[in-house]
Design brief:
The protein has 14 helices and 24 strands. It is of the alpha+beta class. Bound molecules: glycine. Glycine (GLY) binds next to loops.
Length: about 425
C-alpha cells in the first residue's frame, strides 16, 4: 500500500521510521517530509496545511492511507476533505479536532462531562479579564483559545505577567483570531505526564505512557519550548493512574462524542497533571505528542499501520499492543537561542558516528542536506530550532540515559544546546 505521511519534524520522522518498517507499507511519501527522512520516505513538495494540493496528490498517486502528524491540517479539516473524496485517512474530523483547536471548546466539554480540570473563566474583553485577575491568587495560566504554534499558554507568576499575556493576546492580537478569546485558569501543581490513546470511535487502545520536558534549561528553568526531550514509560503513570485517566477523562470524551453521532477516530492525547488529588487534565490534543512519539515508537513492537487501520475500520475492540519493556529516552538537540532567535545553517558533525551507536536511533527535526563528506556520506546542516531527537533504549532508565547522552556528545554543531537532565524524574521515581 502507498502511504502518505503529513509533516516534517522529529515526530514525523519517528512515525515514518515505524511506518516504513510495516509489512503493509509498499511505498511511503512524506509531505513536505525532510532530507533527514528521505532515505525512508519520498519527499513531496507540498506544505502540511495545503489541503487541496495534498488531496490532489493523494488521488493522483493512489495513496491507500494518509497519516497526519501536526494539528494544523486536522483542525483545518483535512480528514473531512479526504473522506469526502473517498480516501482513507487517520485522524479526527474538523468538528472533533476542536478538542485541540479551541481551548474554550475543550474546557467547556471537560466541565460538562465532569472531567477533573483546573477551574477557569473565559474572556474576550481585556477590562473584564483584568477585573477577574484582581480576585485571583498567583500563579495563574493564561491560554489563547486557538492554535498558537505552542506559544499560546503562559504560566504567570505575578499579576504583571498575567497583564502582559492578556495585553499581547486581547489588545495587541499577536496570535490574531486565535487570541481573541482567552482562558484564565488556576495553576495546578504536580508532575505532568502524557497519556496518548488511539480510538476507533468506540474502543480505545492506549500507547505506552511518556513524559516530556518543556522548559529549555535543566531543572525545568527558562521558557517553554516545543519539547526538549521525552522518555517512555513514565513511572508516575501507574496502572491505577492510567485506569483513572481512562475512566475519568478518555472514555467520557469518546462515549460522549459517540452518543452525539460524532465518533472520535484518531489519536487522543491527554496532557495530565498528577496531583495529590489524582490526575487533572491540562489539555487535550488530537495528534501524536512531540517529542513523546520519538520516545514511544522505538518501544512499539506491534505494527503501527495495523493499529491505524484498525482504528479507521472500528476494529480496536480486544486489540492490544505489544511493547518492548525497555525504557527509551529521547533528547532534543537544539540551536542555541531557541525558543528565541537562533541561527541556521550550522554544519552538524558526528551524526553517522552517533547513529551507529548501540541502541541509538536519530530522528531529524530541523536539518537540511548539506555538502557531501569526503567519504561520500551526506552531511547535514541545521535548519530549525529543534534540530535532532537523539533517542536510545536501555535495559533500565540509567542505561538508556547513558546510551542517549553518549550519542548526543558525539554530535556537534556551532551553538548547539541540549538539556542534560532528560528522564531524571524516572531515575528518581
Ligand atoms: N509534548 C507536547 C505536545 O505534543 O503538545
Amino acid at each position: 500500500m502507498r502511504i502518505l505521511l503529513i509533516g516534517s519534524g522529529g515526530r514525523e520522522h519517528a512515525l515514518a521510521w515505524k511506518i516504513a518498517g510495516s509489512p503493509k507499507c509498499g511505498k511511503l511519501y512524506a509531505a513536505p517530509g525532510s532530507d533527514g527522512m528521505s532515505d525512508i520516505a519520498e519527499s513531496v513538495n507540498i506544505r502540511a496545511d495545503d489541503i487541496t494540493a495534498l488531496l490532489n496528490f493523494a488521488v493522483a498517486s493512489k495513496i491507500g492511507l494518509t497519516v497526519v502528524g501536526p494539528e494544523v491540517p486536522l483542525v483545518a479539516g483535512i480528514v473531512d476533505a479526504f473522506q469526502d473524496a473517498g480516501l482513507r485517512i487517520f485522524g479526527p474530523t474538523k468538528e472533533n479536532a476542536r478538542l485541540e483547536g479551541s481551548k474554550v471548546f475543550s474546557k467547556e466539554l471537560m466541565k460538562k462531562l465532569g472531567i477533573p480540570t483546573a477551574d477557569f473563566r473565559i474572556f474576550d474583553k481585556y477590562e473584564d479579564a483584568l477585573e477577574y485577575l484582581k480576585t485571583k491568587k498567583m500563579p495563574v495560566v493564561v491560554k489563547a483559545d486557538g492554535l498558537a504554534a505552542g506559544k499560546g499558554v503562559v504560566v504567570c507568576k505575578s499579576t504583571e505577567d498575567a497583564k502582559t499575556a492578556l495585553t499581547r493576546m486581547l489588545v495587541d492580537k499577536v496570535f490574531g483570531p486565535a487570541g481573541s478569546r482567552v482562558i484564565i485558569e488556576d495553576c495546578i501543581k504536580g508532575e505532568e505526564a502524557s497519556i496518548i490513546v488511539v480510538s476507533d470511535g468506540k474502543n480505545v487502545t492506549a500507547l505506552a505512557s511518556s513524559q516530556d520536558h518543556k522548559r529549555v534549561f535543566d531543572g525545568d528553568k527558562g521558557p517553554n519550548t516545543g519539547g526538549m526531550g521525552a522518555y517512555s514509560p513514565a513511572p508516575i503513570v501507574t496502572d491505577d493512574l492510567l485506569r483513572k485517566v481512562m475512566d475519568k477523562a478518555i472514555y467520557p470524551v469518546i462515549n460522549h462524542l459517540a452518543s452525539e453521532g460524532k465518533p472520535y477516530k484518531g489519536v487522543l492525547y491527554a496532557g495530565i497533571m498528577v496531583t495529590d488529588n489524582g490526575p487533572y487534565v491540562l489539555e487535550f490534543n488530537v495528534r501524536f505528542g512531540d517529542p513523546e512519539t520519538q520516545a514511544i515508537m522505538p518501544r512499539l513492537k506491534s505494527d503501527l499501520v495495523e493499529l491505524i487501520e484498525r482504528a479507521i475500520d472500528g476494529k480496536l475492540g480486544g486489540y492490544a499492543l505489544d511493547w518492548n519493556p525497555r525504557p527509551c529516552v529521547s533528547v532534543a538537540v537544539v540551536s542555541g537561542g531557541y525558543p528565541g532567535d537562533f541561527v541556521k545553517g550550522m554544519e552538524i558533525r558526528g551524526l553517522s558516528q552517533a547513529a551507529g551507536m548501540k541502541e541509538v536511533v536519530i530522528f531529524h527535526a530541523g536539518t537540511k542536506s548539506g555538502r557531501r563528506a569526503t567519504d561520500g556520506s551526506r552531511l547535514f546542516i541545521t535548519s530549525g530550532g529543534r534540530v535532532l531527537n537523539i533517542t536510545a533504549l536501555g535495559s533500565d532508565y540509567r542505561s538508556a540515559i547513558d546510551h542517549c547522552y553518549e550519542a548526543v556528545r558525539a554530535v556537534h554543531f556551532d551553538k548547539m544546546h541540549y538539556r542534560t537532565d532528560i528522564a531524571h524524574r524516572a531515575v528518581r521515581n
